[in-house]
Amino acid sequence: MSDDWLIDNQAYWDERAPLHTTSDFYAMARFREGATSLRPFEIAELGDVAGRRLLHLQCHFGQDTLSWARLGAQVTGLDFAPAAVEAARALATELGVSGARFVESNVYDAPAALGERFDVVYTGLGVLGWLPDIDAWARVVADLLEPGGVFYIAEFHPFMGVLDDETGTTVTRDYLPDKPTTFDEPGSYADWHLPTVHNRATVWRHTLGEIVSALCAAGLRIEFLHEHQVTYFDQFYNLVRDEDGTFHRPDGLPRLPLMFSIRATRS
């Protein structure tokens, strides 16, 4: 495959990052008032980050990155979209978060772009599907960690991608894909009515086995793999929203994992 996907995907996110900073989806008014954008289980599972050097891969416009900074971490965010990095830097300045650094780079070039290692490498929701090579990604994660450092990821469960969008009860797509998917659709998950021009993008589906195996092959030791029956995105039209902002499948349907989280360490 040529690098056309990278050009398309970068243009896709370059256009959407500034739009997302004013989207109701990200609840920016609450965030500016001090609310965290992190999910409670992420904070509990990663643990105390105060004083630790934390790198956030694929940080978008830096909301989660700055949430970790509010918990005391010395943060660096990395993203391949120039507009996202610009927005993250502006947000950090606006909020007065001193010491937050944002770097423009493709994930695969991160070790060279950063030139240092970190105590924690974190990555959040909806990121792995934008990466074509999960083995190379895992090696980058390992390269970026200090010995004894911690990697933590919270992500949408890949099994959810095989189910129909209406009810999430029928298998309609391959779980074991053999090629990426290219789509051309306006808007974004934050607002499907956003006026957008750069709408062509390519994504990949990685199985849970591939993700865990890649991290192990890169030399990381898995401390836990948790599968969660709630999600923070209404992926299916029949999901039920709870008071805490999470979504779950309707009562009476089989319980399925909607998200997963992994914590691993580098020896």
TrEMBL record:
InterPro entries reported in the protein's UniProt record: Methyltransf_12, SAM-dependent_MTases_sf
Gene3D superfamilies on file: Vaccinia Virus protein VP39
Organism placement in taxonomy: Bacteria, Bacillati, Actinomycetota, Actinomycetes, Micromonosporales
GO MF entry, a single one: methyltransferase activity
Pfam families: Methyltransf_12
Domain Methyltransferase type, chain residue ranges per copy: 55-151
Name of protein: Methyltransferase type 12 domain-containing protein
Stored CDD domains: AdoMet_MTases (cd02440)
